[in-house]
């Protein structure tokens, strides 16, 4: 099932439309933007994944060293210890390395379709030893005048969720890692419920458990507790292998509406919806039996990593949710959903 | 290397010395006690692992259902989907199940060697949907008059760290899950540092990262942030496969002294030490090159899961640390260490 209306202009951003961060690398993919209103414009905080030009017979991966400089690691493709069967995560002698290095780029638009960079608002680059393999998939939530950026920090010690706050998009306050390894896909609720802040997050387990959506509480958005699993994968379903939250839950009369992603064993990523109780968001009221969006368009089926639609950013205006999403882990697209129709698909 | 003096009475507690929680099960193992002083006596909070009597050709596992009742699951041993090659965690059709179900039992002693149960102080049983596969390996930290119990909560949704507080060991206040899946081995510092509480914990990652020791900060012991990895496994060492904190760090003039466990690929568990900066405990000053304790005694080499010494409880009196530890995942033992000698082994 697919109840979205895709932008006719899709894809709205491709790797060729943005400049690499340094001449030594090229942009492989644009992915999974955070989305927000600021100064009367629509902004995307796009994940830009780069890697150096490859030489025949070898694979060269970029990492940031702890001094914040780009370093290159090269493996021989015929080395029996080297495994590049997953295009996103390579393995060498038991250790894992990302095939690309990501940073976050700000682009803005007056119409929500045509985006461009503004030299006044620079990129957010990885910083420090928790981000030497990059920063990824940033959600942007707004509470009062402050924007809260929850994003994936990647380094050899693990993958966790970082928090950055800003009010002006020029000065950034880094609040460290709020969810430790292995964790991604953190979506903050944009208001307190019963005096507490809430977040959805996605821990992964090497044994017992899986890639499930959890909820947590906080007094201050920096320290989190009372973790509970609210949505597991479902055997035989489109979301049987992994699930993870998208952007900030949308407050509706029926409950908090969360658009999430689910993938099956073949790594086909679709979108679905969860409806959570307004007063107690750890209570799931409804969940999509069928996807609300599937990779159906050509640009969603073919690319760096095909058969993927993945969203972690949207704008809400009345009944309309405009989602911005990564397609095939390569290009950025847009689509619209009716909240009423999503609720109807949930039997509400 | 081994610089401990084992109790001559070891093992001090064996499965036969404790009664099962219900007649339908037997006690397979006593494991890894938390340790504390209370009412002038030494107390152990022992993990008791039980399972029903097994019938030939099948394997029966116990779980708690959400109503808090014991339920049994039976698998045919010749079912090709059933894998019991790890005696601790069985697999069926991709899902993992613990071979035993654990609860926590209080035993006390006047001499620290001979322990017995007191009907006034009952067991702590698993409770709720996060503990249907049991509760395990409880650390006990004391801050003021309050005891803080950090323990492993196990259920199909994952393995995480729970917090319970008590002042009288009769009334328990459950504070939910403080570190989400996959996490274990949480040791709380017993005082604030720079106004913040600190904890060591051990997340595990399915890819990128591993089974490493992390540190976190909290304003209230219930909500945690600022997670940082402080000790990874070390290739070629005795702790090359997994490491995890033991009991509360011991404050010394040289720094916070943490006795931790490390295991190699063959699942041989030894103990080592970490020395952390007094003002900034995320800074590691020294770490054991060689173990300070190895499974050398017969009862440490042979048992339910052999070649294991594992501690998460100790008493500190002057220069002497009395550790209580699980041997071969089956019996409880005691041993003493000199803080000076441990520091000397760290080059201090």
Automatic annotation (TrEMBL), chains A, B:
InterPro entries recorded: Glyco_hydro_beta-prop_sf, Mannoside_phosphorylase
Entry keyword annotation includes Transferase: yes
Listed Pfam families: Glyco_hydro_130
One MF annotation (Gene Ontology) recorded for this entry: hydrolase activity
Domain of life: Bacteria
Keywords linked to the UniProt accession: Glycosyltransferase, Hydrolase, Transferase
Protein family according to the UniProt entry: Belongs to the glycosyl hydrolase 130 family.
PANTHER family: GLYCOSIDASE
Protein name: Glycoside hydrolase family 130 protein
Annotated organism of origin: Marinoscillum luteum
High-level lineage: Bacteria, Pseudomonadati, Bacteroidota, Cytophagia, Cytophagales
């Amino acid at each position: 099932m697919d109840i979205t209306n895709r932008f006719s202009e899709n894809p709205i951003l491709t790797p060729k439309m943005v400049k690499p961060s340094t001449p030594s690398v090229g942009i492989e993919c644009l992915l999974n933007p955070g989305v927000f209103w600021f100064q009367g414009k629509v902004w995307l905080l796009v994940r830009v994944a780069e890697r150096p030009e490859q030489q025949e017979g070898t694979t060269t991966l970029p990492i940031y060293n702890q001094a914040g400089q780009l370093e290159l690691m090269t493996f021989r493709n015929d080395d029996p210890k080297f495994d590049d069967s997953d295009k996103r995560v390579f393995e060498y002698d038991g250790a894992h390395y990302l095939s690309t290095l990501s940073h976050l780029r700000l682009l803005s638009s007056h119409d929500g379709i045509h985006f461009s960079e503004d030299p006044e608002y620079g990129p957010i680059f990885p910083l420090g030893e928790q981000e030497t393999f990059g920063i990824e998939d940033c959600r942007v939530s707004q509470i009062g005048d402050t924007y809260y950026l929850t994003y994936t920090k990647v380094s050899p010690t693990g993958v966790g969720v970082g928090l950055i706050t800003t009010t002006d998009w020029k000065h950034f306050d880094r609040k460290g890692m709020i969810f430790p390894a292995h964790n991604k896909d953190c979506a903050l609720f944009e208001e307190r419920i019963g005096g507490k802040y809430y977040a959805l997050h996605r821990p992964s387990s090497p044994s017992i458990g899986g890639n499930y959506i959890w909820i947590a509480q906080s007094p201050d958005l920096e320290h989190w507790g009372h973790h509970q699993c609210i949505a597991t994968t479902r055997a035989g379903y489109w979301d049987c292998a992994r699930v993870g939250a998208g952007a900030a839950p949308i407050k509706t009369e029926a409950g908090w509406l969360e658009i999430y992603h689910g993938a099956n064993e073949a790594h086909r990523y679709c979108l679905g919806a969860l409806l959570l109780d307004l007063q107690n968001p750890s209570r799931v009221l409804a969940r999509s039996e069928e996807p609300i969006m599937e990779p159906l368009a050509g640009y969603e089926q073919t690319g760096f990593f095909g058969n993927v639609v993945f969203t972690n950013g949207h704008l809400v205006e009345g009944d309309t949710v405009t989602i911005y999403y990564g397609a095939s882990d390569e290009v950025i697209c847009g689509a619209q959903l009716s909240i009423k129709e999503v609720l109807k698909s949930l039997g509400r």
